[in-house]
Amino acid sequence: MQIFPCPFCGPRNETEFHFAGELGKVRPDTGKEVNARDWATYLYAQRNEKGLVREVWLHLTCSELFVMERDSLTMDVRASKSLRGDAL
Amino acid sequence: MTSHRTDRAGLIDRTQPRNFTFDGKAYRGFEGDTLASALLANGVRVMGRSFKYHRPRGPWGAWVDDPNAIMTVTLDGRSFPNCPAATTPLVEDMQARAVNAWPSAAFDIKAGLDLFHRWLGAGFYYKTFMWPDWHLFEPMIRKMAGLGDISRDAPKNYTADQVHDHCEVLVIGGGAAGLACARAAAEAGRGVVLVDDHPIFGGGLHQSVQIEDRTPSEWIADQLAAIMGAGGRVLPTTTAFGVYDHGLVGLAEYGAFGTAPHLHRMRADRIVLATGALDRPVTFAGNDRPGVMAVDAACEYLARYGVLVGRRIALASNNSLADAAEAMLTQAGAKITRISPQDGAIRALGGKQLKGLAQGLRRHEVDTVLASGGLTPLVHLWRHAGGKLDWCAARQAFLPGAAPDGMVAIGAANGTFDLDQALSEARAIGAGNASDAAARTYSLTPLWPEPGDKGRQWIDFQHDVTLKDVELAARENYVSVEHLKRYTTLGMASDQGKTSNMAGLAAMAAIQDRPLPEVGTTTFRPPFVPVPFEMYHGHHGKQLWHPLKRLALEPQHRAAGAALGEYGGWLRPGWYGTGNRGDLIRREVLSARNAAGIFDASPLGKIEVMGPDAEDFVNFIYYNTIRTLKPGNIRYGFMLTEGGIVMDDGVIARLTENRFVISCSSGHVDSVREHLEAWRQDGNNPDRIFIHDLTQQWSTVTITGPKARDILAKLPLGLDLSAQAFPHMTVQETQREETPIRIARVSFTGDISYEISIRSSRASDLWDKVVAAGEPHGATPIGIEALSILRAEKGYIMVGKDTDGETMPHDLGITIPRLKKKPAYIGDRSLHSDKANLPDRKALVGLAVGDGDKVLPTGAHIVDGTLSRSLGYVTSSYDSPTLGHPVALGLLENGSARTGEIVSVWHMGETRQATVCAACFFDPEGERLHA
Amino acid sequence: MRDDSKKWDAPGAPTTLEMSDGLTITPVQLARQTLLSGVDVLGRTQHPIAAWSGVVTAQTYALSLRRDRVLLVNGPALADGWHGDIAQAVSDVSDCYSVFDIRGDRAFSVLKRGAELRLDVPSKSVARLLFGLGVFLYRFEATDTFRVHVFRGQAETFFKSLKFAFPSL
Fold first, then answer.
1. Do A62 and C134 touch (CB under 8 A)?
2. Chains near C, with 3+ CB pairs < 8 A?
3. How many angstroms away from the CA of B827 is the closest CA of chain C?
4. Which Gene3D superfamilies match (chain C) (predicted)?
5. Which C residues in the span 34-63 are in contact with A, Cβ-Cβ below 8 Å?
6. What is the ipTM of this complex?
7. Which of B244, B472, B763, C22 is the most buried (most CB within 10 A)?
8. CA B459, B463, B464 angle in degrees (round to 5)?
9. Domain interval for residue C79
């Protein structure tokens, strides 16, 4: 079981976290016309990279949504910071 | 029977005899013996029969590397299957039985199978029994093969303790290197835990005469005292069975035989592997015969248990460690004949009883063959952690290469086979320094299986895989080691190939004429040795297996005779009373329709969204427009996924300008709360929206039915309940004895309903008052089963039952927001995809059957005329007590355009007719709802 | 659906559990629990703030749960809802959480059956998973006394989990 660093709580067991998505997904502004290709890319296209990845995770116990940098091959966790970008 | 016990003291306690039986025969051993050592001491060698050919087998190893001696052990009436004799401690009154043998290992009735070996090679069964159907033969074949039988009675009081722990340095293996390293680390101020799977530390040290001018036992005691004196912890009989992510090591700590091991989930900052090395077998004809044993095993049996395994011993070794073994065994009284197996093919003579060893034309009259093809470091845990292996030509072994984070290997596990060098390496690593490699004295001549050799040469003892099977696999092009493994089952038995993998790989390398390291190794996976399942589940059984949430009103429901069951993670009343379940539920439905039902709706979500941006946020979260909702009002709505799929339905109430209460489905509270939190922080301003999940703060009692208003009026709430003052889809807040009460007029039955919410500690009081007020009107408590029928009569859906992973809101007839809602909301764009616009989407319909027809089965398929395709299926179906005929809901392609159409409904070979109708069977005009 | 009433023990009234080695589990009745959410609510609270693994000694204190949320224990009565003047969301949660004190030399060892806990690793939040349940866990009044707030619907499960963790000691 892995240890993930929540930017607010510090290191916690992976069972306290849920994966929320790859970093960099920006929701298209659906107030305007969004073409099918862009929407499909937003919904379904995943980079699913091997090696260094940047992902968004939710810490279930404190609800902090944060960015975690980790290695998808070695499971090594490099860093995490709040999605809001501020230091906690 | 001759005793093989010598006067070498060993580590056993000769003042404590232990009586036991094996295959029904009585024997005696001593405290400190294992089953295998005690049997060997009594001259018993045949301790099991092989998996497939029922060949007689005796121990090859003296510890975890022994693949052969596997027993079912009964103690105090409890039986434990597949106990390895070499690691099972001897206990008074143990009854051991060899597995896969009847009536005994010595005289196994199925031994004749071995005569047919020529036809029973790898893949034989699958190739032979293809016609007419493998499944016809499978039971018989499975009965013939295999190892122990499991007892039908689960042992009582066999529960594993599970604890999380942490240490700075975990040293795995308590031999010379492990002890020295743990001591150095502890004395350097590190928090050390040292584990070893033996009851007595020391590893192979007990074979030595002296170490650093002390006897082995004195030296070991010195190290342990120093480790503990420096604050270290030592855990004997503890197996590190797996290494997992981020330095987590699974430790199984064994207590007395028959008790479940304790599981330590040890998180270690640093892991030192001092797991040692194993003698690997030499591949020769008859190398599986009882009496053929590892060189190191014979030394261990002598050193730890005082057992001399044979008197006339052939020592067939290719490496320099044989000299010490020869000296030790000779000193104990054995006559040793040295054989160089690399000088020519050897073969074992005899059957159950070993008669000798032949090399070319030379015959050696011996009773025991000790073999070693070199040492294989135990690198399992290294590989679990993702460490790399490097091939070492000098040692002819895979050694730890590039290290995983926080792990280091020392001693024999690292290929450091010489004691002095291992000690200096261990001490350097323990103190946190780099280790400098010293000179090596270990040497060997490469010795690997030679394809084409005559005779049956065993590669995998436990799964009966021979060199010929590997050759067959190669011929049939199963040449990758992972394919070889699965085709022949090499290394797939409970010993996971500890003694067989290297020989198998080397054989494949030789057959293909490739260098061994190029062939590679198969994947090492936990557990290192078999561990009981109990260790993994611990206390998570019975009520703690899948614990349910409990209602504040559970005592009231129990007192009312409720049948309780799981509904959406809660333990809830299904129905009340004793008697015929169907009748009881029917009566509840009728009382709700004719008078009123009283229902515990407490698990319904009560998630509050507050703050200046709350309105925009819920408008974004919901499919329906929420912005226009006025304080005091309630709206029904859907939450969608970004894919446009309905994920939850429910009502949302607006209490004030900046405060909403989301009443999501009972089973969806956790997922909806998470969904809201994620969207709040991603794309919205989290400083202006706050979400409080108050589901369990409040309990909710629902009164539903034509008498609901009369019953509610009896509670002194001081509210005007008239339809004008308190219409459908509105909410009122009041107080009673300073306790806030919230009443929402919403309905899940089609009849006028009030959901009364109160803080949970006051719920029982409210429940009692409502039940008392309802009684004169004929109102009764109703459970979920009745509610499910009531809502189906009205055509109200349950998300996940009447919808599936493709259902969009317009499939359920809620079309306006899709066409009109302007501001962005989750899933909006997906509702206009090509797929969403298809005319043949599955839509919600009602299904009516003819007079006197039975209820349609839920899950039945609606099919086209030729039965070639499913057009949809029945999602909810009941015999309606209210209407006196069956009602059903379903999802049907192009359903809304099919009203009036007669469709075929297929279930389990039977086809029936149904008429498509509107998905509402009761009060379609809603007069009762708005009354 | 079948009748599983017998499979589940009827929840009893919470009582103190005392073990032979002096370990006790005591249900605690707090005067009030209030959830407060708002920007910098941690900086603005007047009461001592409890985090992991410090020891709370006050009778009125605030549990640090999130960057923008505290649970005020035994604080004053406040109206539920959005308080625009202080920009805080307020909810009475006195009945939402059941509270237990686990006291004794072995208390920490028992809790380690339920989570990977370390006293030497501080955390700004007392919210965590324990025995698989979302709880607030902190030390109260003494270094050997641990206070747990658990959702009331899961109090029975929590109590059972603790009880099963005992005999193994």
1. no
2. A, B
3. 28
4. Probable tRNA modification gtpase trme, domain 1
5. none
6. 0.97
7. B763
8. 55
9. 15-165
B207 and B315 inside one domain = no
Span B558-573, average pLDDT: 97
**Residue of C67, C116, C127 with shortest CB distance to A13:** C116
Distance between B629 CA and the closest CA of chain A, angstroms? 21
Alpha carbons within 13 A on the beta-carbon side of B854: 8
pLDDT recorded at residue B669 = 96
Average pLDDT of the residues in B457-473: 93
Residue contact B740–C37, C-beta within 8 A: no
- pLDDT, residue B762, reads 97
Whether the predicted pLDDT of B124 surpasses 80 = no
Instruction: Write down all domains in chain A, each with its CATH number in brackets.
Output: 3-25+37-82 (3.30.2270.10)
pLDDT at B110: 80
Interface of C with A in 112-141 (CB under 8 A): 115-116, 121-125, 127-129, 132, 134
Query: Is the domain of B903 the same as that of B881?
Result: yes
Chain C residue at shortest CA distance from B783? C1
B1 pLDDT band (50/70/90 cuts)? Answer: very low
Task: Determine the longest span between alpha carbons in chain B, in angstroms.
Answer: 112
Per-residue pLDDT tens digits for B167-194: 999 999 999 999 999 999 999 999 999 9
- CB pair distance less than 8 Å for C118 and B166: yes
Helix (H) / strand (E) containing A11: strand A10-13
What would the mean pLDDT of B578-585 be, rounded to a whole number? 96
Select from B427, B442, B457 the last residue of a domain. Answer: B442
Amino acid residing at B118: R
- Sheet containing B292-294: give its strands across: B292-294, B368-372, B312-317, B335-339
CA neighbours within 13 Å on the CB side: how many for C76? 5
C82-86 long-range contacts (CB < 8 A, ≥24 apart) are C82/B610, C82/B611, C82/B614, C82/B656, C82/B658, C82/B659, C84/B612, C84/B658, C86/C38, C86/C44
Q: How confident is the model at residue A86 (pLDDT cuts 50, 70, 90)?
A: confident
Q: Is residue B523 part of a domain?
A: no
Identify which of A16, A60, A88 has the shortest CB distance to residue C67.
A88
- Residue B525 belongs to some domain of the structure: no
Do B728 and B717 share a structural domain? yes
* Greater pLDDT, B666 or B133: B666
Please answer yes or no on whether A61 and C115 come within 8 Å at the CB atom. no
Tell me which chains share at least 3 CB pairs under 8 Å with chain A: B, C
Show which of residues 531-560 on chain B sit within 8 Å of chain C, judged by CB atoms.
539, 543-544, 547-552, 554-555, 558
CB contact under 8 A, B659 and C81: yes
- The mean pLDDT value for B317-342 works out to 96
Asked if the structure places residue B146 within a domain, the reply is: no
Looking at the structure, tell me whether residues B229 and B177 fall in a common domain. yes
Q: What's the confidence (pLDDT) of residue B137?
A: 80
Q: A64 — contact with chain C (CB < 8 Å)?
A: yes
Would you say residue B588 lies in a domain? no
Q: A56 to chain C nearest CA, in Å?
A: 18
Most distant CA pair in chain C: distance in Å? 53
C160 chain-B contacts, CB cut-off 8 A: 543-544, 547
The 10s digit of each residue's pLDDT in B401-444 is 999 999 999 999 999 999 999 999 999 999 999 887 666 789 99
Neighbours of chain B (3+ CB pairs under 8 A): A, C
| Residue C67 C-alpha, separation from nearest chain A C-alpha, in angstroms | 7
Q: CA dist C63 to A64, C37, C92, C127, C149, Å?
A: 16, 12, 14, 9, 10
Pairwise CA distance, residues B310 & B319, whole Å:
21
Which range marks the domain in which residue B345 is found? 13-108+282-372
- pLDDT, position B231: 97
Out of B563, B656, B785, the one facing C82 most closely (by C-beta) is: B656
Q: Which two tokens stand for residue B785?
A: 């089963």
Q: Where are the alpha helices (DSSP H) in B431-580?
A: 467-475, 481-488, 501-512, 516-519, 533-537, 554-559
Q: Looking at the complex, does the CB of residue C106 fall below 8 Å from at least one CB of chain A?
A: no
CB B67 within 8 A of CB B498: yes
